[in-house]
Amino acid sequence: MSRVLKIGDRLIGDGQPTYIVAEIGINHNGSLEDAKLLIDAAVHAGVDAVKLQKRTPELCVPEEQQSQMRETPWGYISYLDYRRKVEFSRDDYAEIDRYCRAHGIPWFASVWDNPSIDFMEAFDPICFKVPSASLTDTQLLVHLRQTGRPIILSTGMSTSEQIRAAVSQLDTGKLLLTHATSTYPCEPHELNLNMITTLRREYPCPVGYSGHEVGLIPTVAAVSLGACLVERHITLDRAMWGSDQAASVEPGGFERLVKYIRVVEAAMGDGLKRVYPSEHISLQKLRRVNN
Predict the structure, then answer these.
(1) Which fold has domain 4-286?
(2) How far apart are CA 275 and CA 277, in angstroms?
(3) In a designed cystine with 13, which of 3, 148, 171, 250 is the match (CB 3.0 to 4.6 A)?
(4) What share of the chain is helix, strand, coil (3-state, %, to 5)?
């Protein structure tokens, strides 16, 4: 079974280069200038796309959490006000769109509610991402399917039954699943990378990996297991304020991640045994018996 999906001008799936996404998310902490610096770092690393997140805070923050107070870079404010601080305006996104186009890098966003889908539609996104937290939001999934755009569905903190129910609401011909564990950062023993193989066996669509671990090795391993898309959070500094920073990759690390993935792709081969021309000297020098 060949699993291939077109996102933007790229084919993603079996037999294609790994599609590498740098998730900016909310690591910009509401700063448009920091968002641009993160885009610069992603472009320099050689990723294929960058991703942000779009929420309507009044809809996405549970009512019982909205008035909870917390320390933030903007002072001691409510959780709802904090969520408003890290949301970009339409003008901000227009500038991000312009900046990405000028730097030749596609961008898209995770959308957490229906108004956010409508908001993002104005920017003609190459696809939409469903965050793991929204996998059980049937209204969101139906609204996304109606856009006709490719959808990336993340499967963290979800049961197999919930994943099947979500997939049933979507067009598998325009779907890519990503295995994920929604812990920030995630310990290696909870990454369960073999779920990539499980998802590939159960579903006819491409399967990727959204990693939240510390370090690069598991993400590279995911590629060897068949992940056709990998997504990692990018940060300017893992010590910055924010809930996702510790599970993110700094610019130098992202450069290494892209390099390692490309090396693994080249090393995987096609599974057909052959004697390479480069082996002939060793063959003649070392083999004593031929049959």
Answers:
(1) TIM Barrel (3.20.20)
(2) 7
(3) 3
(4) 45, 20, 35
